[in-house]
Amino acid sequence: MKSGMFGDIPVDVGVVYEGERIRKGEMHAELGGPDIKHKFELFRVKSPDKVEDGKIKVVGPEFKDMQEGSKLPFAIIVEASGKDLEEEMEGVFERRLHYFTNWVEGFMHLNQRNTIWCRVSKKSVQRGLTLEHLGKVIARLYHSECPIIEKVQVTFYTDPAEVEKLYSEALKIYDARDARARGLKDEDVDVFYGCTLCQSFAPTHVCVITPQRYANCGAIGWFDGRAAAKVDPKGPIYEVKIGECIDPLKGEWTGANESVKEKSLGEVKKVWLYTAFGYPHTSCGCFEAIAFYIPEVDGLGIVHRDFKGPAINGVPFSTMADSTAGGRQVDGFHGLSFEYMRSPKFLQADGGWYRIVWIPKEAKERVKDFIPPDVVDKIPTEEDVKSVEELKEFLKAHGHPIVEPSEHLKKLGVKGLKGVEAEVAATAEEAAPPTEVVTAPTITMPVSGVPGGMEFEIILKNAKIFAEKLIVRRIEKRKGGKE
Ligand code: SF4
């Protein structure tokens, strides 16, 4: 019989289960995820009289009552109180849900806010795991890991109608949180905040959170970082002294460089906060969207996590996420949050919104008010163009700034669509006549018809053959047995 803090939980609970993936064949049910519109998680700070410590409530079917293989809307609401707990800490404690739920054997939690994607395994449900157990684990971990929390209650919603009812309210709460930091500039502060919470999934990933660069997950802004570092200075969110500014355009500071180097154990040497090229901010795996380079037009596309189908480059979000994630700095592929897209510093070293040439309609709607008015209608969505060829036509027809870059874009090194086309044309002109180059370790050629009736073989070792044309022809056997 198990004992200790989780003695009454029928599965194991521990950090060891972080990063556990539950594949389709192993899952009992999926909660939230890309196929489900309504899903979210919220952490709310309440007055003590509004919180019943340890209370767990499930509104809708329990795991065992869900049909095997089903996909359901899902919401987790944690309400907590504590005399030093402040509303501005909500985002930070909300993010801890990702870790606490992942510590439960057979429960997987990905992403955050209204993009959560959870799965529970068949094995764990067979062993008796319920949402009620999950709630108990969450509440106990908040108590043990965050002493500032004095009372906590957890409510799960799996009833689709109930989740839908609460969904728009959750979006309003996220928006209000995000808006709090707007107006404060990176130049106005002398500390940034760092976060290494995602290192359990991406060991070299270090977030640098500034007033104008929200964390990749979209869950932690500069004020959240400040609150977290104040409550738990030795925790995964900490203060970063910014030091000297090396490059205000790219967003490089000595302090941020030292911090990422130390926290990534030397893997990441420096970071440029406002660009997708060179030394971009590392990408963990829970970014809300990806900026990706489209070489044919010298522009950047954006694709968000919930976008179904391939982006304009023919590649779906999941595939691009695989090549972007893992705590790496991938030139031209950049994980980011929606709130960062609303920032005046958004990819400023690359041209910002003037460099963006494609974005899904849903994502565009969410940030539309922050796209400069002179370019907003020149950025197509999946409804306007379906291929890179159509994209080129659209950009030209609408006079997108990437077609013929302004002096400002040129100074940033942008050659633009016409520049790319000119390069392609020049390369085609200069190109040598088509040549086949074959390198073969050994080629043996029979030689016949030598005077005197002798037959030879010519053997070419490590031959390189240049030919204007390569013709492969079947040789018919001639009558009489000769070829
Ligand atoms: S994405 Fe960054 S800020 Fe968000 S939890 Fe991960 S490391 Fe922390």
Describe the overall structure.
- By secondary structure, this protein is α+β, with helices and mostly antiparallel strands.
- The chain has two domains: 15-180, Bifunctional carbon monoxide dehydrogenase/acetyl-coa synthase(codh/acs), Chain M, domain 3 (2-Layer Sandwich); 186-427, Ribonuclease HI, Chain A (3-Layer(aba) Sandwich), CATH 3.40.970.20.
- It has helices spanning 90-102, 122-126, 131-145, 160-180, 222-231, 254-263, 317-324, 338-341, 361-367, 373-376, 388-397, 407-411, 416-430, and strands spanning 27-32, 39-45, 56-59, 70-72, 74-81, 107-110, 117-121, 151-157, 191-195, 207-209, 237-241, 245-247, 252-253, 289-294, 299-304, 333-336, 356-358, 436-447, 456-467.
- The strands form six sheets. It has a four-stranded mixed sheet. A four-stranded mixed sheet has the order 2-5-8-3, with helices on both faces.
- A hairpin with an 8-residue loop joins strand 18 and strand 19.
- The chain is globular, with a radius of gyration of 29 Å.
- The N and C termini lie far apart (83 Å).
- Bound molecules: iron/sulfur cluster.
- Iron/sulfur cluster is lined by residues 95, 195-198, 207, 215-217, 219-220, 284, 286.
- Iron/sulfur cluster binds next to loops.
